[in-house]
Amino acid sequence: MTEVIIPVQLTMRWHRSIVIKQSSNATKQAEDPFAVMADRSPRGCESSGMESRIESDDTSTIPFPKRLFRGTQRRWRKALSHIVAKFAKWGARSSWFSWMYFAFWSRRMHREQRAMLAGWLKFQEEATNPVASCAQLRRGIHRLEKGLLMRPRRDVFGLDYIQDVFSTYKQMLMHAENCSTTSDELSWANDVLTEYFEVTTDHPKIDPLRQEFRNLTHPPTASAALHTPYKRDLSTPPPLSYDQLLILSQRRRSVRWFSPESVPRDVITKAVAIGGQSPSACNRQPFVLRIFDDPDLVQQVAKLPFGTAGYAHNIPVIAVVIGQLRNYFDARDRHLIYIDASLAAMGFIYALETQGIGTCCINWPDIEERERKMEQLLKLEPDERPIMLIALGYPDPEGMVAYSQKKPVEQLCRFNFE
Ligand SMILES: Cc1cc2nc3c(=O)[nH]c(=O)nc-3n(C[C@H](O)[C@H](O)[C@H](O)COP(=O)(O)O)c2cc1C
Predict the structure, then answer these.
(1) For the residues 242-269, what does the mean pLDDT come to?
(2) Is residue 160 part of a domain?
(3) Do 197 and 78 fall within a single domain?
(4) What is the DSSP letter of 102?
(5) Are residues 100 and 6 in the same domain?
């Protein structure tokens, strides 16, 4: 098998060098023949049509040798696509082949893999030396909360992780010693641990920790309210009706034309506060919104993705949604940055809409050259992954939005096997 793969791989590499050497702006991205096959548009699915055409198909003016070369190249490309398709077929069936593909041929996954390892190291570092926020503590406290609200509640729970949670809590407490008030995160941890040690019964794993917890000096908390599981007040109806939410959702459309009016920062931070109320796996909230409202920086950031072509110049504010892989102890959870950040982004977008601010999500495909530029401009840490961008501002009343037909409900959901 190896004998077959190596020539294929060498051919692929040789072909790639030709493609890259011959490349215009468009083909430079074709680092991966799948990309060439799947997406011939240089700007991917969010090509706006506003940008100028890059390539012309008119070959009549090209000299014969060049045409011959191009023809040969096209045939090679076709043959190569065929080989790659075969390789993909094997790869789809065997993890060994897919590993080969991504290890030796395509670099598409490399940045994410590197970021994952950097995140994993940072997770370990923060667990032993937590300062402002700690994923291990947040996850552990969240698990204890679930144990506390369980019906029926068990007399003893959390044995697998209570030691780790408690050690992290102690570390964080040491850092907080010099502060006059405790952070909300620490108050939350304190309250949940207090309740946990109050309700759990005697157990050799819990008893020494319970004793140590009681002997710790806990700094004063910022608020008197307890941060433990509670019953919500359901006696009054929700303050927002379904119809109001429907109207808001139908009113929101991607806005690409903005008025030059600046957006007050508190309008934006109020929207961030709503985004921050979104659910996230184990309540880790593994994201940060990097917001740019300085016109020069906005332009630098807005020109990085492809999807702003033709309207980048009129964007007044741009947010880059960044996922932080430092929140996970295992690669199995790497997808959560995308889910959690997107849920928060939706809250953020709706909150802006309620304040009269239009938004447009902007795609951020994993293209190494662009990733590098984004990393440098935003001074990102190695575990930080840009997820998408959001352009925002007061809509230009003269600017149009796309109709964007939505799929009917019947196509969007299915009950049981009906
Ligand atoms: C993840 C994501 C990426 C997007 N990327 C772009 C983009 O790069 N450029 C753009 O103009 N619009 C982009 N959009 C906006 C979509 O085109 C738009 O949401 C879709 O057509 C539906 O229209 P609506 O938002 O007005 O309902 C993106 C939207 C999402 C959710």
Answers:
(1) 98
(2) yes
(3) no
(4) I
(5) yes
Residue 400 belongs to some domain of the structure: no
Give the pLDDT band of residue 152 (cuts 50, 70, 90). Answer: very high
Write down the pTM of the prediction: 0.85
Co-location of 149 and 268 in the same domain: no
Burial of 87 (0-12, 13-18, 19+ CB in 10 A): buried
Backbone angles phi, psi at 290, to 5 degrees: -95, 115
Mean pLDDT of 120-144: 90
CB atoms within 10 A of CB 304: 21
- Closest C-alpha residue for ligand 1 atom 18: 254
Dig out the tokens for 34 from the structure: 């799948």
What is residue 49's predicted lDDT score, i.e. its pLDDT? 45
Q: Does residue 365 lie in a domain region?
A: yes
For ligand 1, which residues put their CB under 6 angstroms from it?
Answer: 46, 48, 253-254, 256, 305, 307, 360-363, 388, 401-402, 404
pLDDT band at 222 (very low <50, low <70, confident <90, very high): low
| 41-96 pLDDT per residue, tens | 445 445 444 444 333 445 567 788 888 888 888 999 998 888 888 878 888 889 98
The predicted structure's pLDDT at residue 8: 42
Whole-number pLDDT of residue 182: 62
Q: Which residues contact 11 (CB under 8 A, 6 or more apart)?
A: 80, 83
Say whether both 149 and 263 belong to one domain.
no
Give the least confident one: 6-20, 80-94, 346-360.
6-20
- CA 161 – ligand 1 centroid, Å: 42
Cα–Cα distance list, 158 to 174, 208, 307, 345 (Å): 23, 15, 47, 32
Angle between helices 110-128 and 368-378 (to 10 degrees): 30
Q: What is the pLDDT of residue 343?
A: 98
Contacts of 241 (CB under 8 A, 6+ apart): none
Sign of torsion over alpha carbons 122, 331, 272, 402:
positive
Which residue, chain included where needed, has tokens 């698990």? 143
Query: How many angstroms separate the alpha carbon of residue 361 from the centre of ligand 1?
Result: 5
- 331's tokens: 């690669």
Give rounded-to-5 percent helix, strand, coil for the chain.
Answer: 55, 10, 40
89, 140: one domain: no
Instruction: Report d(CA 172, CA 181) in Å as an integer.
Output: 13
User: What is the percentage of the chain residues whose pLDDT exceeds 90?
Assistant: 65
Q: For residue 17, what are its two tokens?
A: 């060098």
Spatial separation of the C-alpha atoms in residues 277 and 325, rounded to whole Å: 20
Atom of ligand 1 nearest to the CA of 404: 23
